[in-house]
Amino acid sequence: MFRRLDHVGIVVHDLEASIQTYCQQLGFTLLSRVSIPEQLVEAAFLDGGNSTIELIAPTDTTSGTARFLANRGEGTHHVCYEVDDIEAALKTLQERGLRLIDETPRRGVHGLVAFVHPKAAHGVMIELLQKDSHAH
Ligand SMILES: C[C@H](C(=O)O)C(=O)SCCNC(=O)CCNC(=O)[C@H](O)C(C)(C)COP(=O)(O)OP(=O)(O)OC[C@H]1O[C@@H](n2cnc3c(N)ncnc32)[C@H](O)[C@@H]1OP(=O)(O)O
Ligand SMILES: [Co+2]
After folding, report:
1. Which residues does the UniProt record annotate as the domain VOC (predicted)?
2. Its pTM surpasses 0.90
3. What CATH architecture applies to the domain 4-131?
């Protein structure tokens, strides 16, 4: 089903401060910074050596990530796996009775994405990603 781990998403209060911590103290390298208005978040992708993390900060107080921060505080928010065919993966997961957040994919930063509900995977939200052919 899953091809590989793509990234781990971490929700933070202050994107700039978290980039500083991860780059200057933990030795990660900044890959890109993106604004995702549809999700009401700003994010940064960082390379940690055969691993990528996505730091995410809400840009408003009503989003899911803002609620996550208020209720649970900063921390691991989702684990993203790359799939070859996201429509097929969603169909398979649905047939297996898994609770999805998105029944159809939406456009993400690096391709099509869809989320599996955290309650369906023992407290971990799973993001599926079908990369655009030109994305790295
Ligand atoms: C760009 C980037 C990317 O592409 O990677 C992104 O999209 S990041 C942008 C973020 N986008 C998303 O998160 C989209 C998908 N998320 C959502 O639709 C929502 O946040 C949601 C359905 C997971 C939860 O929203 P909700 O309104 O149903 O309810 P609540 O916020 O009250 O949460 C319901 C229960 O789920 C738990 N819960 C919520 N979020 C998480 C999470 N990330 N990991 C683990 N548990 C979680 C809460 O603590 C609560 O548990 P209890 O009941 O036990 O207290
Ligand atoms: Co993500």
Report:
1. 4-131
2. yes
3. Roll (3.10)
